[in-house]
Amino acid sequence: QVQLVESGGHVVHPGGSLRLSCAASGATLADYAVGWFRQAPGQQREGVACISCDDGDTYYADSQKGRFTISVDNAKKTVYLQMRDLKAEETAVYYCATRTRPWWVATTLSAANFGSWGQGTQVTVSS
Predict the structure, then answer these.
(1) Nearest-angstrom CA–CA distance, 88 and 24
(2) ω into 102 cis (within 30 of 0)
(3) Beta strand 3-7 with 18-25: parallel, antiparallel or unpaired?
(4) Parallel, antiparallel, or unpaired: how do β-strands 68-73 and 58-60 relate?
(5) Average pLDDT along the chain
(6) Per-residue H/E/C for the chain
(7) What does the radius of gyration of the chain's CA atoms come to, in whole angstroms?
(8) pLDDT digits (tens, 9 = 90+) for 49-106
(9) Do residues 123 and 18 touch, judged by C-beta distance below 8 A?
(10) Cβ partners under 8 Å of residue 70, min gap 6
C-alpha cells in the first residue's frame, strides 16, 4: 500500500500562487505515476496534472494554460503542484493519487485510473 498526505492548501486571492505537496510513504515513488485532481462542491472530480516519477514526464489538463507545474523530488518522496494566477473557479479540494504500470493510462487524467488517494487539501481562491 501507498500512503499519501497532501498539504499546502489555504485561502489565496485571485491571481495568487500556491504550492501543494503530496508526501508518499510505503513504496518507492519511482514505481508510480502521481496525479493531482480537484473537486469543487457539487462538481465532478477532475484531473489537473500527472507525472511519471521514473522519468519525470508530465501531463496537464488543457485548462491549466501553462499556469501550473507538477514536479517530483524522489529523495523526499514528494510530488509538488505549483499553481500561479489562480482563479476563483479553481476553489476545490485538491487530491493526489498514484498509478502503477502501465503508466500511460495516467495521462488520461481520469480518477478511475488511479488506485491510492490522499485525503485532500482545501484551496480557496477568494477576494
Answers:
(1) 29
(2) yes
(3) antiparallel
(4) unpaired
(5) 94
(6) CCEEEEECCCEECCCCCEEEEEEEECCCHHHCEEEEEEECCCCCCEEEEEEECCCCCEEECHHHCCCEEEEEECCCCEEEEEECCCCHHHCEEEEEEEECCCHHHHHHCCHHHCCEECCCEEEEECC
(7) 13
(8) 999 988 899 999 998 879 999 999 999 999 999 999 999 999 999 999 999 988 889 9
(9) yes
(10) 36, 49, 50, 51, 58, 60, 79, 80, 81, 82
Contact 9, 123 (CB under 8 A): yes
Residues paired with 83 in a beta bridge: 18, 68
The CA distance from 24 to 4, in Å, is 5
